[in-house]
Amino acid sequence: MVEKLLVQGLVNTDARVVADKPVTPTFLFALLLYGPIAQHIEAAPPERWHELATILDACDRATREAQTRVAIPRRFSLGVREMFALQPRLEHPRGRRALRVLEHPRFRAAYDLLLLRAQYGLAPEPMAKWWTRLQEVSAEERGRMADAVSREGGPPQGPGRGGRRRRRPRRRSGPKAHA
User: Fold this and answer.
1) What is the C-alpha to C-alpha distance for residues 52 and 115, in angstroms, rounded to an integer?
2) Buried b vs exposed e over 143-173: b needs ≥16 C-beta within 10 Å?
3) Contacts of 95 (CB under 8 A, 6+ apart)
4) Which stretches within 19-73 are classed as H helix?
């Protein structure tokens, strides 16, 4: 499966070059490191697979191992970390915060990786389609889509919460006043 993902990613990259679209070496490194990164992630307990610390640790370990054979400039290894760190946010968008992901410098590369993963059943295909559609619609429609995904797929909201979390009152460190 990983080999198919790598080959398809390279085919897609060739198509981008032919179409005179930008291509980043970071994406190529992400493709080449996908297998080792996935192995490190899957070595963790399944409930930790989407945790940022697990993903970043897997990226760092795979990069260190690869650097014993090939030099990977830091700007590319950091980009690979960002692309993989964005995957959970792409798979589980949360309301209007999802719109900020569109502005991330690595969004396009992370989105392309999500599409590849979805093509091989490694990511939810409905979310890949959702992100594709989100990029095609007006800003107003994007807001509606983000609100809808928040209602449908976001964390459960209690009655009257309006989608916002309330902060607990701060504890005062001074002496307690007695009434």
Assistant:
1) 20
2) eebbeebbeebbeeeeeeeeeeeeeeeeeee
3) 146, 147, 149, 150, 154, 163
4) 25-42, 52-66
Q: What is the pLDDT of residues 129-145, one digit of tens each?
A: 999 999 999 999 999 99
Strand ranges, E, within the chain? none
Pull the structure tokens for residue 15.
């198509």
Q: Which tokens is 128 given?
A: 């890949």
Angle between helices 74-91 and 125-136 (to 10 degrees): 100
Contact 155/94 with Cβ under 8 angstroms?
yes
Q: How far apart are CA 86 and CA 79, in angstroms?
A: 11
Span 53-90, pLDDT tens digits: 999 999 999 999 999 999 999 999 999 999 999 999 99
Pick from 36, 24, 27, 26: which is nearest to 8 by CA?
27
Average of per-residue pLDDT across 132-159: 76
CA 59 from centre of chain: 13
Q: Which residues of 87-106 are buried (b: 16+ CB within 10 A; e: fewer)?
A: bebbbebebeebeebeebeb
pTM over 0.90: no
CB 26 within 8 A of CB 33: no
The answer to whether 145 and 94 have CB atoms below 8 angstroms apart is no
Nearest CA to 77 out of 61, 67, 63, 66 is that of 63
